[in-house]
Amino acid sequence: MIAEKFSEMLKSVKYPNEDTNDFEAREIERLQNLLCDIIEARKEKYRKLKIEYQNKKIDIENDFKLVLFKEYNIENHPNKEKIYSRAWEEGHSYGLEGVEQKFAEIYNACWKL
Question: Is residue 67 over pLDDT 60?
Answer without folding.
Answer: yes
